[in-house]
Amino acid sequence: MKVTKAEFVKSSTRVHQKPEDRLPEFAFIGRSNVGKSSLINMLCANNKLAKTSQTPGKTQLVNHFRINDKWYLVDLPGYGYAKLGGKAREELQAVIWDYILHSEELVMLFVLLDSRHDMQKIDLAFMARLGEEGIPFGIIFTKGDKQGPNVLAAQVEKNCARILEDWEELPPCFVSSAQTGAGKEEILGYIGEVLETL
After folding, report:
1. Is the pTM of this model over 0.70?
2. Which of 5, 47, 76, 195 could form a Cys-Cys staple with 29, CB 3.0–4.6 A?
3. For 7-55, what is each residue's pLDDT tens digit?
């Protein structure tokens, strides 16, 4: 699938505020500074679509981008942003889970993980809750250009093995790089295949 049209439609903090044209939604989430905005811009071939920042935790709203007038790419706030105060962090969690649990159009949630690092407890706990709630999800390992192919493959394999300690089978997994475009065809191709089944 090729993205020929990508436009920002609106931001919201609650599901009832989201766009009224009920198109299938594929949402993206990860810890702060995992490269989510850069990945979204790479997938849509538009470097100005999602706002990138050197400061973690910038995304604090649910942002809907209409793609090819057929589906929504949904940019969610990052989970586990430590610098937010307790009340602000709770509110951000409420924004995230209100969308995940109550958006009837959500087809799949992509959880982004930095390919250079071991998974953290917060990543595992987040995926565990997705499992408990029956939310379909895939994994995208970001920043795949930051280390050599052998080191990258070993780290991804290590993280996948850790996931299999808790899960009977791996969810769909992709390795991406916003810099090189790696993973773009695979991720969009997968979304296209899922859309054809709806």
Report:
1. yes
2. 76
3. 999 999 999 999 999 999 999 999 888 999 999 999 999 988 887 655 5
Taking residue 152's Cβ as centre, other Cβ atoms within 10 Å add up to: 20
Q: Which conformational region is residue 119 in: left (phi greater than 0), alpha (psi within -120 to 50 degrees), or beta?
A: beta
**Tokens 């390795």 sit on residue:** 175
> Is there a domain that residue 101 lies in?
yes
Q: Which structural domain range is residue 154 located in?
A: 6-197
CATH number of the domain enclosing 116 = 3.40.50.300
Distance CA 46, CA 5 (A): 10
Q: Cα(29)–Cα(112) distance, rounded to whole angstroms?
A: 6
> Can you say how many angstroms the Cα of residue 15 is from the centroid of all Cα atoms in its chain?
17
Q: Is residue 1 part of a domain?
A: no
pLDDT tens-place string over residues 178-196:
999 999 999 999 999 999 9
